[in-house]
Amino acid sequence: MEDREVFVGGVNEVVREGSRVRRPAGPWSPTVQRLLAHLRREGFTGAPRPYGLSEDGTEEHVEFLPGDVGHDFLAPQVRSDASLVAMGRLLRAFHDASASFEWGPDDVWQLPPRAPSEVICHGDAATYNTVFRGQLPVALFDFDTAHPAPRVWDAAYTAYRFVPLYAPDEVDLTIPVPEALRRLRLFADAYGLSPEERAQLPATAATRLKALAALMREHAAAGHPAFSRHVAEGHDLRYLTDAQWIEDTFTGCL
């Protein structure tokens, strides 16, 4: 029997064949392949090894990372303090390895670079793009949204997904404010955010979610099927609601 699996994500369909994954390539894929190779040279193993593009340039090939993916936001391994700490450390290690990546005006990014461009951000370092082994996060995948930006830009979105920071109307996933604050501080400590970065974290998370909602609407208006479905399902409104709640609830608390 052929060793093959098809995975359907939020935007793309990817195919595992043996120890490799084939996924649709975009204009940014050559830059992402260079980034993944750089991470390996820097000794960071929490990302897939790159294997280049197909001959016709329509597919990107990367290493398959075995383990469990955090699709279930309520799973104990996703919600544990140990996972939150491990994720903060994993994100920090990735950022540190990416800081020396040399990029220039010819590089293409799916998301626009943001100043100050301290590191390469993953852009979607959430539970569903994280590999868990032994109930702890050990690797990130799906680097399509990688782009240069401040560290806190990535950390804020990861905190939103891992703490998590969902408004109370998201009744199945929200957590009490005191517990959210405790876990937010735990994540900030694990990553090693500076006092200035900690102070920026809530406002940055809100700005990040507003930018995500705007991006979804832009692509939906252009006819992108996945983003059109997301907007029809109200994902953009979810992000805007959470953004406002984060601003109102956590600003000045860290």
Commentary on this structure:
There is one protein chain. This protein is of the alpha+beta class and 254 residues long. The chain folds into two domains: 60 residues; 183 residues, Transferase(Phosphotransferase) domain 1 (Transferase(Phosphotransferase), domain 1), CATH 1.10.510. The chain is built from eight helices and ten strands. The strands form three sheets. Strands 1-2-3-5-4 form a five-stranded antiparallel β-sheet, with helices on one face. Strands 6-8-9 form a three-stranded antiparallel β-sheet. The chain has a two-stranded antiparallel sheet with strand order 7-10. Helix 3 packs parallel to helix 5, helix 6 packs across helix 7 and helix 6 packs antiparallel against helix 8. The termini are far apart.
Protein traits:
single chain; 254 residues; alpha+beta; Transferase(Phosphotransferase), domain 1; 2 domains; five-stranded antiparallel sheet; three-stranded antiparallel sheet; 10 strands
**Largest sheet entry:** 5 strands, antiparallel
Class per helix and strand makeup: alpha+beta
Give me the CATH superfamily of the largest domain.
Transferase(Phosphotransferase) domain 1
Strand percentage lies at 15-25%
The number of helices is 8
Oligomer: single chain
Number of strands: 10
Q: Give, in spatial order, the strands making up the sheet with the most strands.
A: 1-2-3-5-4
Distance between the termini: 54 Å
User: If you compute it from the alpha carbons, what radius of gyration comes out, rounded to the nearest whole angstrom?
Assistant: 18 Å
Provide the number of structural domains: 2
Task: Give the second-level CATH assignment, the architecture of the largest domain.
Answer: Orthogonal Bundle
Summarize the amount of helix as a percent range. Answer: 40-55%
